[in-house]
Amino acid sequence: MFDKLFQAQQKAEEIKKRLDTISVSGEVEGGLIRVIATANKEIKEITIDPVFLSNADKEELEELLVVALNKAITQADQISQAEMQAASKDMLGGLSGLFNQ
């Protein structure tokens, strides 16, 4: 039983490492603002078009940044959930074998 729990813990660590290697993005206004993050929701990069930046007011910039960040986080959540669901199916399959013995 402890072996199965250890395997589950290892699988969770593998998923976390894999999510660190997956990039997601959120962009607004046709790419004027773009946010790059990992599927673990770590923001890696924010780019803002220089022409847009010179013409934008503070409130507009803040609102669009929030939208871009939320888009990236939503994508990260979707990927993370898909990975966890796949891992859960694998783990539950392994655990059912444990209880059927």
Could you give the topology of this structure?
Blueprint: H1 2-21, E1 23-28, E2 33-38, E3 43-48, H2 50-55, H3 58-99
Antiparallel strand pairs: 1-2, 2-3
Helix pairs in contact: 1-3
Question: How would you characterize this protein structure?
Answer:
This is Nucleoid-associated protein ABTW24_16950. GO terms for molecular function: DNA binding. One of its GO terms (cellular component) is bacterial nucleoid. Homodimer. It comes from Sphingobacterium thalpophilum. It is a single chain. The protein has about 100 residues and is of the alpha+beta class. The protein has one domain (about 1-100): Nucleoid-associated protein YbaB-like domain (Ybab, Chain: A, 2-Layer Sandwich). Helices cover about 65% and strands about 20% of the residues. It has three helices and three strands, in the order αβββαα. The protein has helices at about 1-20, 50-55, 60-100; strands at about 25-30, 35-40, 45-50. The protein has a three-stranded antiparallel sheet with strand order 1-2-3. Strand 1 (about 25-30) and strand 2 (about 35-40) form a beta hairpin. It is rod-shaped and about 60 Å long. The chain starts with a helix and ends with a helix.
